[in-house]
Amino acid sequence: MTCSLTDTQVDGLHTNVFLPDTAPRSVLIIRTPYDAAAYRAEAHAWVRRGIAVVTQDVRGRHRSRGRFRPFENEGADGLATLQWVASRSWAGAPVILYGTSYSAHCAVETAIAAAETGVDVGGVSVAVPALGLGETARNIDGCFYLQSRVGWWLEHGEGPESPGAAIPDGLLDTLPVADIGRRVTPPISAWERVIRAERRDCERGAEVSRLRCPLLAVGGMADWFAQDTVDLWTSWGGPAALVMGPWDHSLRGSDRARRMESWIDDVCAGTPTTGAQVLGLPGGTVDLTRWPSTEASTGLPGGRFHADPTDPFPSMAHGADLSEAAARLDCLVLDLPNRSAALIGTPTVRVHPTDGAGHWGALLAIRRRDGRLEQTAHGMSTHTTIHLTPVAAHLDTGESMVLILSAHSFPRHARDLQSRNDHLAGTETRAVLREVQSVTLDMPA
What are the residue boundaries of the Xaa-Pro dipeptidyl-peptidase-like domain, all occurrences included (predicted)? Predict the structure, then answer.
């Protein structure tokens, strides 16, 4: 199937339209800050499947006019683009708002804006969604994502192009964290806005609960935004499908295009898919109608450990071997009772300390038969309840689980200074003895 390409402007936003040589069976809209031209190969692949594609540089990026202000105005600009597409002669098929990471934010905000104005949306397909400024700056328990936020703003910046700058050595050690924005070249002028950003989970949950169009959400257990993907699916008001697997933010190996094409076929047929699929476990795909709740509580003993912000407990990647980290003196290692072979859901840790002040971190690991202590979930909280990242794990015979408590998870998260100073504005640090009376671990049933 041949493809025609048109470059145009929609309200000052550079837009590419890729059309098949027959009437499209659906239309994808992709709005991105990462250069719409980079989607040409993918757009041609969709056109070969009879699907039209509209790609667009968001305001202030690449060939679009204006100023780039990340996570602002994407609903309004997306709605204008959606209305423009709906007015084209070739757009009689369902229009799908489609995006990965920041582009997923664009898609969700456009769907919300469309619902508020009565504009029809055929469906929304998102992957590893970066849902907002606050959601990318802090985890659900209020801890600041230091490494990823510094990295993203240095790589992509605030101008029309992405400078691609790496994080300079030692920058993440900077105190106060609030000074990082002006200690780099070029400065991050929006840094204060980033560190002050708050999550909008309740507001967004209410907004998407009113949507009635179908949703496909794809996420990875090793992705930064795994829980946000699950929560978006859980809150969605229309027919919603979730696919989670052992992937990171790149979704490499997820076979996402095939899954999405099958979902588009169902949407066009008026029978959109619902429910969740969890992939990557030895027994094959697990089908769910809801995300498992934490219903089984286990009481664990307490203990004590020293914590020093000048030598913080390190953050580790999903699947990393924690054996060396677990031998450090600034953590508490607790063996868990044996449990069933499969574990799917989002565990919660409740720490009962002698002194409740301070941040608390937790890692869930599997003691594998080959001797590795494999990290399967992590969490960091500004208070004593820690919501770990989603888990999809399998324990073989003879394997067991371990919970590791700490005071830090650096450089993934900004450090607790332990001096009663604000962890983003303060400079004074203090080493302390952390004392834990007991721990409650709530696991998915």
Answer: 12-250
The neighbouring-strand residues paired with 335 are 402
- Give the sign of the dihedral formed by CA 245, CA 246, CA 249, CA 253: negative
What is d(CA 80, CA 77) in angstroms, rounded to the nearest whole number? 5
Quote the strand ranges of 264-330, DSSP E.
275-278, 286-288, 294-307
Nearest to 108 by CA among 7, 200, 223: 200
Determine the straight-line distance between the first and last CA of the chain, rounded to whole angstroms. 50
Residue 106, CB half-sphere, CA atoms under 13 Å: how many?
27
pTM: 0.96
User: Which residues on neighbouring strands pair with residue 31, listed in sequence order?
Assistant: 56
Among 151, 262, 157, 168, residue whose Cα is nearest residue 216: 262
Instruction: Check whether 140 has a pLDDT greater than 80.
Output: yes
Stated as kind and residue range, the H or E segment containing 363 is strand 360-367
Residue 316 neighbours by CB under 8 Å, 6+ apart: 322, 325, 363, 375, 378
* 26 alpha carbon, distance to own chain's centre: 27
Whether the per-residue pLDDT at 326 is higher than 80: the answer is yes
pLDDT in tens, 233-287: 999 999 999 999 999 999 999 999 999 999 999 999 999 999 999 999 998 999 9
Side-chain half-sphere exposure of 74, counting CA atoms within 13 A: 31
Single-letter amino acid, residue 393: A
Following DSSP, what letter does each residue of 35-90 receive, concatenated? -GGGGHHHHHHHHHTTEEEEEEEPTTSTTS-S---TTSSHHHHHHHHHHHHHTSTT
Range list of β-strands (E), 110-189: 123-127
Nearest-angstrom CA–CA distance, 113 and 98: 15
CA dist 340 and 76 (Å) reads 48
Spatial separation of the C-alpha atoms in residues 23 and 45, rounded to whole Å: 16
Distances (CA, A) of 427 to 173, 310, 417, 421: 11, 11, 8, 7
For residues 161 and 62, the answer to whether their CB atoms sit within 8 Å is yes
Virtual CA dihedral for 173, 410, 227, 400, nearest 10 degrees? 170
Q: Sorting pLDDT into bands at 50, 70 and 90, what band is 1?
A: low
- Angle (nearest 5°) at CA 439 between 433 and 443: 140
CB 264 within 8 A of CB 26: yes
At residue 227, does pLDDT exceed 90? yes
What is the distance between the alpha carbons of residues 34 and 156, in angstroms, rounded to a whole number? Answer: 8
